[in-house]
Amino acid sequence: MTDTLFEKSVVYICEHNEDGAMGLIINKSLSQKELDGFLQINDNLSIKLKNADKKTFLGGPVLIENIIILHTNDIVTENAISISNKISISSDEKILKKISTVNKSKYKIFLGHSGWTGGQLEREIENGDWLIQKSSIDLIFDMPKETIWEHATKSLGIEINDISSFGGSA
To answer: How many domains, in total, are found in the chain?
Structure first.
């Protein structure tokens, strides 16, 4: 994969069905300068993020003007969508206020998301563009962003330096 946005990215797949897939890049946070740039362009976004702390990530290149919050199920809002028995997703502005009131809550705020059309992600996986593994709360929320990719590859038993991104014939 030559796309630099997805290079060394760990994407949590939130939804996957015959129509396509939607995921969030969990290890590419926005720098304060990048976040400030987004906020200058979009006043509405600035108002929404005003009271949120800076756990803000670039979820992907699709609809970067939209806020998505990935969080543990101890944060409850009426519009949250359960992804698993431990994780939900929401774009409800009310959740930004709730985050600060739930002490043990784990969450990440994303601008945009990653999206694939029906069959596209499957083709990329078959092509060897992605490695697959089960998710965990620790991987998603607790690990420093700088170590997520390395941990994810090592937990698969892969020495990533032994894999070539180029194919050929012998």
So the answer is: 1
Sign of the Cα torsion 42, 39, 10, 77 reads negative
User: Would you report the helix, strand and coil content of the chain in percent, each value rounded to 5?
Assistant: 30, 25, 45
**The domain spanning residue 55 has which CATH number?**
3.40.1740.10
In a domain, residue 74? The reply is yes
The pLDDT score that the predictor gives to residue 167 is 55
Q: Which domain holds residue 133?
A: 11-162
Nearest to 9 by CA among 162, 119, 105, 124: 124
Each residue of 80-134: pLDDT tens digit? 899 999 999 998 777 777 776 766 778 898 989 999 999 999 999 999 899 998 8
